[in-house]
Protein backbone atom coordinates (compact mmCIF):
# COMPACT_ATOMS: atom_id res chain seq x y z
CA UNK A 1 0.00 0.00 0.00
CA UNK A 2 1.20 3.51 -0.82
CA UNK A 3 -0.15 6.67 0.72
CA UNK A 4 0.68 10.25 -0.18
CA UNK A 5 0.41 12.92 2.50
CA UNK A 6 -0.38 16.58 1.96
CA UNK A 7 -0.98 19.18 4.65
CA UNK A 8 -3.13 22.30 4.47
CA UNK A 9 -2.10 25.04 3.81
CA UNK A 10 1.58 24.16 3.27
CA UNK A 11 1.00 21.77 0.36
CA UNK A 12 -2.12 23.30 -1.17
CA UNK A 13 -4.59 26.03 -0.47
CA UNK A 14 -7.65 24.14 -1.70
CA UNK A 15 -8.94 20.61 -2.20
CA UNK A 16 -7.56 20.27 -5.73
CA UNK A 17 -4.11 21.45 -4.70
CA UNK A 18 -4.01 19.07 -1.75
CA UNK A 19 -5.11 16.14 -3.92
CA UNK A 20 -2.42 16.89 -6.53
CA UNK A 21 0.24 17.17 -3.82
CA UNK A 22 -0.80 13.91 -2.14
CA UNK A 23 -0.94 12.15 -5.52
CA UNK A 24 2.57 13.33 -6.40
CA UNK A 25 3.88 12.12 -3.04
CA UNK A 26 2.21 8.73 -3.50
CA UNK A 27 3.77 8.22 -6.92
CA UNK A 28 7.23 9.08 -5.58
CA UNK A 29 6.77 6.33 -3.00
CA UNK A 30 5.49 3.87 -5.62
CA UNK A 31 8.54 4.52 -7.79
CA UNK A 32 10.58 2.69 -5.15
CA UNK A 33 13.26 5.35 -4.80
CA UNK A 34 11.72 7.09 -1.77
CA UNK A 35 11.05 5.95 1.80
CA UNK A 36 7.73 4.23 2.46
CA UNK A 37 6.22 7.54 3.52
CA UNK A 38 6.77 10.68 1.50
CA UNK A 39 5.45 14.15 2.21
CA UNK A 40 4.93 16.26 -0.87
CA UNK A 41 6.83 19.48 -1.35
CA UNK A 42 4.64 22.44 -2.35
CA UNK A 43 4.07 23.01 -6.05
CA UNK A 44 5.73 26.10 -7.41
Structural topology:
Layout: E1 4-5, H1 15-30, E2 38-39
Parallel strand pairs: 1-2
Describe the structure using short key phrases:
single chain; 36% helix; alpha+beta; two-stranded parallel sheet; 2 strands; 44 residues
Main beta sheet strand tally, sense and closure:
2 strands, parallel
How are the strands of the biggest sheet laid out side by side?
A: 1-2
The 3D shape can be described as elongated
Please tally the β strands and state the result: 2
> What is the number of domains?
1
| Helix and strand composition category | alpha+beta
* Helix-strand pattern: EHE
What is the first-to-last residue Cα distance?
28 Å
The amount of beta strand, in percent, is: 5-15%
Helix content: 25-40%
- Rg of Cα set: 10 Å
Low-confidence stretches: none
How many helices? The count is: 1
Mean pLDDT: 77
Overview of the molecule:
- A two-stranded parallel sheet has the order 1-2.
- The chain is elongated.
- It is built from 1 helix and 2 strands.
- The chain has one helix spanning 15-30, and strands at 4-5, 38-39.
- Helix 1 links the parallel strand 1 (4-5) and strand 2 (38-39).
- The protein has one domain.
- By secondary structure, the protein is an alpha+beta fold.
